[in-house]
Amino acid sequence: MDVQAWTFLIVGLTFALYIGIAIWSRAGSTGEFYVAGKGVSPLANGMATAADWMSAASFISMAGIIAFAGMDGSVYLMGWTGGYVLLALLLAPYLRKFGKFTVPDFMGDRYASQVARLVAVLCAIFVSFTYVAGQMRGVGVVFSRFLEVDISLGVIIGMGLVFFYAVLGGMKGITYTQVAQYCVLIFAYTVPAVFLAFMVTGNPIPQIALGGVDADGTGLLAKLDGMLVDLGFTHYTEYVKSPLDVVCITAALMLGTAGLPHVIIRFYTVKTVRGARSSAGWALLFIAILYTTAPAIAVFARTNMLETVPDRAYSEAPSWVTTWEDTGLMTWVDKNDDGVIQHTNGAAFKGKPVFEIDADGESVRGDHGQRMVTNLLDDSNDNELYVDRDIMVLANPEIAGLPDWVIALVAAGGLAAALSTAAGLLMVISSAVSHDLFKRMLVPGISEKGELRLARIAAAVAVVFAGLLGIFPPDYVAAVVAFAFGLAASSFFPAILMGIFWKRMNAAGAVSGMVVGITVTTAYIVWFKFIDPAANVSENWFLGISPEGFGTIGMLLNFAVSIPVALATRPPGPEVQALVESIRVPAGAEAPAAGVH
């Protein structure tokens, strides 16, 4: 069988498994729809949390970013891993003891304010839609290459699958589907890494092979450094970003993790606070398997590409080059008309390739076979090769010449990662609309059956909007996800942290801080990414801080506004202060505090 046949087989089997689990675990009540009836075991919840956490950004894009950014890409590893530890140890147990299964619910009851609830609902929806855009983009990338369909059609297919098991099963269906998706994605991620580690160094453990030597006795990192310098790139093992920007991006990713509603809600699907802590530990172990493998995959992928593509006649290029060209995610333009692929430091194009189409609807190719690119050429450098960062993990098995079934397995893993997180995010949007907005604010008398119907309608509408964001993505998968983390850090993190640990924090402080934090961060990202992208260079950034790291500044502004406002306004009532005190008292932690449900 060829790659496409293997892909249809493996992806088809995994999709059938997901649909079967959704039918088996169909939600029959709002409790099952929102928090899976709080009956999930810590081990299963750990797997589901890991799948929820390791999105398309982790599976598809993170190693690709590291492959091209080198040491600068380490901010994603440090930020996302550290952020999960921060969430699991600092916030999750207290939120679980509070007993509210959505962040807006926590905000509304902790601050005794419908305004705080409404602002939290709007922030949750905004952050979740930003995040889900990256997941649907990842689905489109996988489908476009391995099933040979247009990216837009691939996104629509993914929408249909997520719609089925998210709307039908709710959190119960999503949880058990995510257990299966974790098994698929981690197997798909580690198998090629083991293959490559053994092929290159003779050691099958990728984490150890990364520091090993090849058949010639040359260290892998030293070899990659030398290849990049020879082509005009900077050293792979040196930072290019400013130290302040590195700190800000890492902090934004870490603190944004602690405010991401789709991860927080997972700690409510287990029966007890002890179960929440246990599932957090299992999830960290499952996450570490992928995150410690990513740097090795990045080095293998970049090295293999540099060994097989640059300074080679296009007519002699490996078949995977033209295959990926067909997706529009990789393109070569022969600037000096010599038929040889030149790959040097510098952007080959100012934007993603746009192909010329002839009267028969076919892509026009130049004299040497390259696709023609319209109005996007950058003649300021000699780089002729455009490579989308999001293809590196998916193309890696092809670049290395691994078996076709391994290539297809990676495609199935990428889809599992994207769909698992997309489903969790859609549940956040659904619960924010049906439970927090309608049940708790607009229609408090709505029946459980009516709320369940409304939740499913909200999930369906959210799927459609998520698909549109996947078809028209604002950036690479990892970059889009980084924006979501920055928005979460600037809005939710201070309000949640002070809501747990500072009894004096009130609704006025929390609301004002959230509004200022998310507004300023959004404005900064929108300005440099959409309004004036040409100005998106370090010289124009505030203190040299990139849009990906500006969430840290937004978070600091949140604190700077919320604390003085809280001190200048009336403190919370004694019942709220007693509630906050009860959250932090270890005694009786297995049961909700009095009056809290």
Amount of helix: 55-70%
Q: Distance N terminus to C terminus?
A: 55 Å
**The CATH topology of the largest domain, please?**
Hydantoin permease
Low-confidence stretches: 586-597
Mean pLDDT: 78
Q: H/E order of the elements?
A: HHHHHHHHHHHHHHHEEHHHHHHH
Portion in strands:
under 5%
Provide the CATH top-level class of the largest domain: Mainly Alpha
The rounded Rg comes to 24 Å
Which descriptor suits the 3D outline?
globular
Q: Assembly type of the shown chains? A: single chain
- Biggest sheet architecture: 2 strands, antiparallel
Q: Enumerate the strands of the largest sheet in spatial order, edge to edge or round the barrel.
A: 1-2
| Structural class determined from secondary elements | mainly alpha
Count of alpha/pi helices:
22
Domain count, please report it: 2
Beta strands, count:
2
CATH architecture assignment name of the largest domain: Orthogonal Bundle
Please provide a written account of the structure:
The chain starts with a helix and ends in a 13-residue tail after the last helix. The protein has helices at 3-24, 30-35, 42-53, 56-69, 74-98, 103-110, 114-146, 151-201, 206-209, 220-230, 243-257, 261-264, 273-291, 294-308, 319-325, 392-399, 404-442, 448-471, 477-501, 507-531, 551-568, 574-584, and strands at residues 330-332, 385-387. It is built from 22 helices and 2 strands. It has a two-stranded antiparallel sheet with strand order 1-2. Helix content is 66%, strand content 1%. Helix 7 (114-146) packs parallel to helix 20 and helix 10 (220-230) packs across helix 14. It has 2 domains: 3-23 and 33-302 and 403-478, Hydantoin permease (Orthogonal Bundle); 330-387, no CATH class. The model is unreliable at 586-597 (pLDDT under 50). With 597 residues, it is mainly α.
